């Protein structure tokens, strides 16, 4: 009987410990206070953030003469709010969401760049019998379709409704030019493009609260390995490089974030075209590799995110930088990490020196569809 009573008490004690303990995994962190070391049980999710800001936290604790009892109350309040939200990864979900958005644009930007300087003719060459084949240039407009469903994971952080955004079209407006290789069956091309979605009302509203801007410059060369004056069939291979500097901003009610990144894209291409009177149908294949560097920063309102605006202990955690309002980080997308493959084609119309080119492009590796329209003067 005594043994059964002991087991019953042990079970009750164990149950009580389980129900009173925090459901959120925690880790002990030691800070230097004004009168010695102070320890706190912090959700594991916050440990990387705490370590990055440890010096400023310790300075704030020392300046305010925070005691062990006060710090314990603060850490318990943080764990309690985590429990109430049934979340173990608030900070990491924000970090992953920011990088997901950046990663999405890391796929979209090279595909949008690829629509610049696409010519129906596979070669601009003075060796052709057509006198309008030495150089030319004009305006290129492109649209790249993509989804911002990755924003759905950030809805809680930024105070947004759950997002399920269908196709969004990222426009490009580029100036491009080509010049022939004269004695060699080759040509050289350059393109320049820039965009700021905050200045385009329809696009700004479609992707709100996200805004996006970029500046792109690049060039390529093409060499014709088949160029028949008799059949007007031309096939060429090409290579090029584009550099883009861009930024993404997310401006929500409860948090703001910005990602700035630079992207270097290298590509190889092959294209064939056939001239039939004034029409020039073409088809091509392009492979791309990109290297991107991300720098991001965030500004969050922890009391709103933790649903604890009236909780003085959470406000103390913010004041002592245990829940820092601002933080930042960086990431890199390596060259072979996100390859892109373009299958493209379209139709050109050549009216004396006035050229029109339309085209479609599909990246099956990333499921991204693009289109382009160009108007040029060639002489």
Which labels suit this protein?
379 residues; alpha+beta; 10-stranded antiparallel beta barrel; 13 strands; 26% helix
Structure characterization notes:
There is one protein chain. The chain is α+β, with helices and mostly antiparallel strands. It contains nine helices and 13 strands. It has helices at 2-20, 47-52, 54-63, 68-84, 90-113, 155-158, 201-207, 302-305, 312-319; strands at 26-33, 36-43, 135-147, 167-180, 186-196, 210-227, 233-251, 255-274, 279-300, 326-333, 340-351, 354-363, 368-378. The strands form two sheets. The protein has a ten-stranded antiparallel beta barrel with strand order 3-4-5-6-7-8-9-11-12-13. A hairpin with a 3-residue loop joins strand 7 and strand 8 (255-274).
Spell out the helices and strands N to C.
HEEHHHHEHEEHEEEEHHEEEE
Mean pLDDT: 83
pLDDT < 50 stretches: 1-21
Bin the strand percentage: over 45%
Please bin the fraction of helical residues: 25-40%
Radius of gyration: 29 Å
Brief account:
With 379 residues, the chain is of the alpha+beta class. The chain has 9 helices and 13 strands. Helix 4 packs across helix 9.
Topology:
Elements: H1 2-20, E1 26-33, E2 36-43, H2 47-52, H3 54-63, H4 68-84, H5 90-113, E3 135-147, H6 155-158, E4 167-180, E5 186-196, H7 201-207, E6 210-227, E7 233-251, E8 255-274, E9 279-300, H8 302-305, H9 312-319, E10 326-333, E11 340-351, E12 354-363, E13 368-378
């Amino acid at each position: 009987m005594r043994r059964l009573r002991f087991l019953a008490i042990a079970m009750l004690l164990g149950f009580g410990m389980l129900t009173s303990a925090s459901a959120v995994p925690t880790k002990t962190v030691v800070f230097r206070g004004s009168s010695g070391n102070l320890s706190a049980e912090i959700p594991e999710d916050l440990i990387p953030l705490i370590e990055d800001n440890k010096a400023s936290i310790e300075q704030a604790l020392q300046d305010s003469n925070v005691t062990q009892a006060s710090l314990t109350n603060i850490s318990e309040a943080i764990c309690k709010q985590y429990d109430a939200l049934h979340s173990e990864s608030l900070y990491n979900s924000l970090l992953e969401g920011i990088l997901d958005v950046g990663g999405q644009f890391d796929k979209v930007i090279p595909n949008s760049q690829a629509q610049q300087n696409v010519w129906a003719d596979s070669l601009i060459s003075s060796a052709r019998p057509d006198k309008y084949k030495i150089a030319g240039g004009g305006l290129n407009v492109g649209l790249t379709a993509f989804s911002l469903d990755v924003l759905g994971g950030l809805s809680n952080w930024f105070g947004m409704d759950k997002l399920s955004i269908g196709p969004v079209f990222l426009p490009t407006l580029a100036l491009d030019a080509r010049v022939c290789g004269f004695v060699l069956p080759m040509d050289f091309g350059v393109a320049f493009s820039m965009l700021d979605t905050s200045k385009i009302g329809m696009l700004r509203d479609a992707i709100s609260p996200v805004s996006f801007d970029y500046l792109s410059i690049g060039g390529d060369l093409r060499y014709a390995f088949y160029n028949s004056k008799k059949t007007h069939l031309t096939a060429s291979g090409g290579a090029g490089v584009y550099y883009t500097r861009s930024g993404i901003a997310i401006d929500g009610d409860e948090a703001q974030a910005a990602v700035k990144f630079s992207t270097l894209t290298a590509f190889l291409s092959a294209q064939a075209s056939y001239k039939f009177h004034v029409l020039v149908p073409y088809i091509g294949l392009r492979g791309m590799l990109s290297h991107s560097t991300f720098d991001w920063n965030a500004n969050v309102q922890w009391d709103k995110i933790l649903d604890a605006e009236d909780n003085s202990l959470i406000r103390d955690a913010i004041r002592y930088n245990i829940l820092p309002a601002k933080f930042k980080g960086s990431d890199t997308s390596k060259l072979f990490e996100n390859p892109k493959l373009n299958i493209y084609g379209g139709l050109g119309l050549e009216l004396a020196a006035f050229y029109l080119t339309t085209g479609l492009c599909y990246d099956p590796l990333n499921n991204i569809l693009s289109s382009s329209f160009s108007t040029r003067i060639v002489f």
